[in-house]
Amino acid sequence: MLELRNVSYCVDDNNTQKEIIKNISVKIDNGFVAITGPNGGGKSTLAKLIAGILKPTSGQILLDGEDITEASITDRANMGISFAFQQPVRFKGITVKDLITLAAGKKITVTEACKYLSEVGLCAKEYINREVNASLSGGELKRIEIAMIMARGTKVSVFDEPEAGIDLWSFKNLIQVFENMHEKLGGSIIIISHQERILNIADEIIVLANGEVTAHGKKDDVLPGLLCGDVGCKTLMDKIEQ
Amino acid sequence: MDAIQKNLLEQVADLHEIPTGAYNIRANGGLAGRNTTANIDIITKEDKPGIDIIIKDGTKKESLHIPVLLTQTGLKESVYNDFIIGEDCDVTIIAGCGIHNGGKEGTEHSGIHSFIVGKNSRVKYVEKHYGSGEGTGERIMNPTTIIELKEGAYLEMDTVQIKGVDSTKRTTKATLGDDSTLVIKEKIMTHGKQTAETDFEVNLDGVNSGANVISRSVAKDDSYQLFLSKINGNNKCNGHTECDAIIMDNACVRAVPEITANHIDASLIHEAAIGKIAGEQLIKLMTLGLTEAEAEAQIVSGFLK
After folding, report:
1. Is the separation of the CB atoms in A127 and A96 below 8 Å?
2. Which residue range(s) make up the domain with B149?
3. Domain ranges of chain A
4. Quick check: is B114 in a domain?
5. Selected residue of A90, A99, A102, A149 to mutate for chain B interface (largest B Cβ count, 10 A)
6. By CA distance, what is A53's nearest residue in B?
7. Which of A42, A201, B244, B253 is least enclosed by beta carbons within 10 angstroms?
8. Which residue of B has its CA nearest to A79?
9. pLDDT in tens, A78-93
10. Using an 8 Å Cβ cutoff, are A35 and A190 in contact?
11. B158-191 pLDDT, tens per residue?
12. What is the pLDDT confidence band of residue A22, given thresholds at 50, 70 and 90?
């Protein structure tokens, strides 16, 4: 279980302290948790705080009761936290197989790589030796990013807007991937998303707006409110309607 | 051949033992082994150090190894190797120089390689440079490569210098005939106080000739790299030169690409990029469980792969 206790995160904005995350306390149990809310509400910042890319200004982060607030990105990765970037990174010379091998933490066969890549709709034969460079489209990179998280198979997986730019591959498949992951791995799957179809498969929904948790509960309790605009803001509603 | 020489041979030519096919092994200025085949002849020059390599017309699927090993500190040599490759050949030539310097004096090898590639022949030329040894004496290599491609010829040159060479000046000059193609891939890593200078000059003289010169390099510590690449389009031709460098620590990298079109149908492109390893690349690999140092090593080795 992942727990955030009184977590705040401030940045210096023209010599004034701007609070991006405001004293958040949440417990994230095993299961499928969607984090949603308006753009600029602090969702990606929260994901980076969980992965250790950012350190909170104050507060604590606990994984299975252990305080990991000071743990590095590497330590957290090895403790079982995975993070799929919203904007995947390109590497000259590093191949898809290299990245999946690093993610798996051991040598993998083409058949194993194929298992992960085919789940995200990519043909291993075609992709395994491709460099993860500018020759790949944004959508291809996103899918490789998801395949890496599957190869890691950790107890906490955080996805920052996995649906963005998924191009021709369908939403239905993406949702299937998350459901399969959930079934195989257990643990917590945390997905930052604006998409109703993703919110719809979540066990729990956390709404983050203006750096604060404005709603947190079972999907059936939170989602109707979001859809009729009680707790959501207009931006979110616009997104959901699209 | 002793253990040090065997190690150098493995580093520069991926050879664990005497190769098959034609070879000429030069060790500390002398001949350490030679084999010729029915199609590939090797003749010692009489007027200066070096060899003439003559490859007969129609020689296919044959390889030639010509490693140079230096383990004697203070040795300085210039070696002239001329390759005369006939028509319709398809051959692989593996050259390379390894210096092990355990002493105080500088050890220096200047290899001047000249290629004449006959009509419609394909040549893959692989060149590796490697230095080792605990001595304070410098390990210096100055390779010069002169290439002349006849009509329809193709030459691919892979040149790698990853470790241990203190100072290098690498000069490559090529002249291309009609329908000929030249591909050069250079990989360099420098560290400590090493310097590496590369100077390519390609003259696209023939109709439909083409050249692609690609350099990838990593400069660490206080090292210095200079990349000069000139392509002259003197006919209907295509030329592309690209330098991509990762800079680390206090290193310095200069990239000076130059393209000149002397013909209305010359199409030339140059690209040069120098930058440090992107922070997000390190972070991505760290989220996979690598330490920062491991992530850096992974990015560098991938880049130079």
Report:
1. yes
2. 3-279
3. 2-88+154-241
4. yes
5. A102
6. B283
7. A201
8. B289
9. 999 999 999 999 999 9
10. yes
11. 999 878 889 999 999 999 999 999 999 999 999 9
12. very high
Q: Are B153 and B117 in contact (CB under 8 A)?
A: yes
- Say if residue B16's pLDDT is above 80: no
**Number of domains comprising chain B:** 1
User: With contact defined as beta carbons under 8 Å apart, do A8 and A55 qualify?
Assistant: no
What is the rounded distance in angstroms from the CA atom of residue B94 to the CA atom of residue B104? 30
Give domain status of residue B293, yes or no.
no
Size of chain B, expressed as the number of residues it contains: 305
For residue B289, is it within any domain?
A: no
Question: What pLDDT score was predicted for residue A5?
Answer: 97
pLDDT at B297: 95
> Least CB-CB distance to A98: which of B281, B287, B302?
B302
Residue listed under structure tokens 């207009």: A234
Contact, A52 vs A44, CB < 8 A?
A: no
Short-list B137, B95, B138, CA closest to B115: B95
Does the residue B305 lie in any domain?
no
Least confident of A167-171, B99-103, B140-144: A167-171
DSSP annotation of B19: P
Q: Which of A165, A218, A230 is nearest to A195 (CA)?
A: A165
A226 vs A96, more confident: A96
Beta-bridged to residue B91, according to DSSP, are: B62, B123
From the CA atom positions of chain A, what is the Rg in Å?
18
User: In degrees rounded to 5, what are phi and psi of residue A125?
Assistant: -55, -40
- Check if B287 contacts A (Cβ < 8 Å): yes
CATH 3.40.50.300 fits A2-88+154-241, yes or no: yes
Beta strands in chain A (DSSP E): 2-13, 16-28, 31-36, 58-63, 66-67, 81-84, 156-160, 188-192, 204-209, 212-218
Q: Is the pLDDT of residue A240 over 80?
A: no
B289: contact with A, CB 8 A cutoff:
yes
- A124 phi and psi, to 5 degrees? -55, -40
- Residues A219-232 have a mean pLDDT of 76
| Cα–Cα distance for residue pair B171/A66, rounded to 1 Å | 59
The set of residues, in sequence order, having a beta carbon less than 8 Å from that of A212 and lying 6+ positions away, is: A22, A23, A24
B110 within 8 A of B97, measured Cβ to Cβ: no
**Does B297 contact chain A (CB < 8 Å)?**
no
Give the other-Cβ count within 10 Å of A229's Cβ: 12
Size of interface A-B (CB pairs under 8 A): 58
